[in-house]
């Protein structure tokens, strides 16, 4: 039986009390896509756009955002992260760029929000850098791929999908 | 003919020079969806989840993020915003919550990034508040709906779609 | 025998060395009031002002500020908080709104400043939202109610008052 | 007829639209007190506490906080300030330290919140630096002294008091 | 006749009042060096260290820092920048890497601090990325190269040097 | 054999994984100089410039910057610091002001960057406060003096110098 942990019974916001939880190894992986109009996709594919540089700026932005998650998401705890990695790569199938993030920490709460924030900000950064060419880009399928550690145990996006099918 | 305005010819990042551009009225609207698994969707729909409160926290987070866009997106200019509004509403069709933002400013560059950042952060905040129920949510179709003001003129997402069809 | 721990003998500022202190459970409660002119008080009391919404925005602002205390107060340590709660309620006696905060952490220094900062920022936020009606509000009696944990032991505001009377 | 400008009719938060307002000279003065227990008051009065240094750190903290007001108070606009001054002085009458701030800007909205935030943060900073001596301090009578500029015209705290008396 | 503009007659800090100054075009250029031990210098020179990537991360860090100057330097005004560019290049003569920044704005105060902050942070970022190889790097000759705009007129570092010689 | 730990084999940025490292006591000392033109040096030396106040503002700025290092330097981990001290003193030999910082923490990575950032920001703050007198100041010899703690062991700048001589 689930509940919105960030609101009390009268709907008042709060930062969940994690004072009784121990530090354990946490890890989360998230991903998402920016779908590109033909013009941009082809420029990136042919190298007319300095792809490496655009993608590395986006990766860096994602890493920096992961560290600021507690500041951006109102009820997130401020965590000390052990590791953040963000990768952007051209994805022919979806006709765009796939962003994947991986975050780990020894902490009292999970790092799902850090992973999702890193992906979102990397996508926003790609949009920002390419919007001079064409504004018709959009973000798709931003989701948590997997998480491990903590009381709620492991989570795999794929398992969820089969569960939905039942 | 488009180009990546945030990189010079050798791929070095830069904050575009807007020193010759005048202040004009800028406006941007963006939107996006968080798709909810049945369990959460039904709880929200029936009021088992204090919907109003979850959505208002998300709206506030989106507004605050719009003001921090220049800090989160590496090459964005720091702008002075005149107005930010973020609205979250249940969307039966997409089986989730739709977030819409509207930002305006009298500035030398557009406010598209502010609008998109507001939507992304509002979505992340909803995820954060509901993830204790089920982590199987994802974000979809985050895009710029329209913009006006500035040299590049007006932009409408819908026009883009018909253009793509040609 | 007390001393200003944040200055050395020549008056130079420093962040106190807590390197020899262990992590222990810390908790602090603070409160304060915003006194309202009749016009606003009555509007809030009768529900002409959407009280719930004003107060929840203030509560959220207080929570977020608690996390930023180390950034706002120059010589505060940056702590990792376990829990933050802020509550605002109409107070007939003082003719205003009472804000109470509670903060806890397993840390090497106390969380008094986090609790007091949360109260102050929640009060400022109420002022900001109601100042369009009447600017004649003021803040009163912002103080630490109690703290526990750490070498200096427990503290109760009430005990202080009787001590003052001696 | 007043209203809460930061909420729409359904109680959703928003950053007020100031897009039709022109830049005008704005100025606001605020003040407040930290009331000290005898022990601290006497130490400060006799110079056992390096008063100048404590108060200058507090003044600096207040100035820096004024610049961050838009980040701390959720629905404040991010303004460009022309001038910020914060002064702390021993006040025998109230048995404590009086903090006064003055902020000015050529902007589309008033700087009341910047002035009140500067006072609040300076008070918090004094508390932080002296709490090692005695935690029994509290803040009192934080209020807007005067403001000028903008459509709503001038405001004087004193006028309010006589109005209340009517 | 010069004076410390950020302190009043009693040494209290303040943010200088620029309320009577008009917006004019401002520009500042600054530079500085990080001197490398042989081991790192040779690795960078031969391409054993992915030079382009290290330097581009540093450039980006410098640009982002320029935007945060008002937050880092206590008495700086928060400005709206029109343009920021940071370039890092290997310098055989000084046996290190030279960082140059250029900042421009239409503002009421100069952008010297933004330019110097950008250089300092880019240098710190190079140090951070290479310190795993050898910590024996240092920064040298960080200075303002030139500035234009504003009441105090143009400034050229070179002119200063000849003046010193007199 | 050294390597740039913040880039993977293809030059993509990442925040190094410190997940297998234990908390140990870390300490770092850094220093640097701002060289003053005669005019400023003499004013400071004779007390025409309120030296104590300028230097204390710079010290405070350095302390606050140490806490923000993770936000300013893109790939730094966000650490919890135990102690930060920054001292500024007139240095006749170098004809300027010497800034020294000392930072300690029980952490999984070193605090070298925090110490160097504190020095850099204190120097920038002195520049900011004195630039109204003469802009011809520069920073020199900013370096890590020593560090202890962690797997890479102790480091002394002096040892490095003799090593270079070999």
TrEMBL record, chains A, B, C, D, E, F:
<dbReference type="InterPro" id="IPR050105">
    <property type="entry name" value="MoCo_biosynth_MoaA/MoaC"/>
</dbReference>
<feature type="active site">
    <location>
        <position position="128"/>
    </location>
</feature>
<feature type="domain" description="Molybdopterin cofactor biosynthesis C (MoaC)">
    <location>
        <begin position="15"/>
        <end position="150"/>
    </location>
</feature>
<feature type="binding site">
    <location>
        <begin position="113"/>
        <end position="114"/>
    </location>
    <ligand>
        <name>substrate</name>
    </ligand>
</feature>
<dbReference type="GO" id="GO:0006777">
    <property type="term" value="P:Mo-molybdopterin cofactor biosynthetic process"/>
</dbReference>
<comment type="similarity">
    <text>Belongs to the MoaC family.</text>
</comment>
<dbReference type="InterPro" id="IPR002820">
    <property type="entry name" value="Mopterin_CF_biosynth-C_dom"/>
</dbReference>
<dbReference type="InterPro" id="IPR036522">
    <property type="entry name" value="MoaC_sf"/>
</dbReference>
<comment type="function">
    <text>Catalyzes the conversion of (8S)-3',8-cyclo-7,8-dihydroguanosine 5'-triphosphate to cyclic pyranopterin monophosphate (cPMP).</text>
</comment>
<dbReference type="InterPro" id="IPR023045">
    <property type="entry name" value="MoaC"/>
</dbReference>
<keyword id="KW-0456">Lyase</keyword>
<comment type="pathway">
    <text>Cofactor biosynthesis; molybdopterin biosynthesis.</text>
</comment>
<dbReference type="InterPro" id="IPR047594">
    <property type="entry name" value="MoaC_bact/euk"/>
</dbReference>
<keyword id="KW-0501">Molybdenum cofactor biosynthesis</keyword>
<dbReference type="Pfam" id="PF01967">
    <property type="entry name" value="MoaC"/>
</dbReference>
<dbReference type="GO" id="GO:0061799">
    <property type="term" value="F:cyclic pyranopterin monophosphate synthase activity"/>
</dbReference>
<feature type="binding site">
    <location>
        <begin position="75"/>
        <end position="77"/>
    </location>
    <ligand>
        <name>substrate</name>
    </ligand>
</feature>
<comment type="subunit">
    <text>Homohexamer; trimer of dimers.</text>
</comment>
<protein>
    <recommendedName>
        <fullName>Cyclic pyranopterin monophosphate synthase</fullName>
        <ecNumber>4.6.1.17</ecNumber>
    </recommendedName>
</protein>
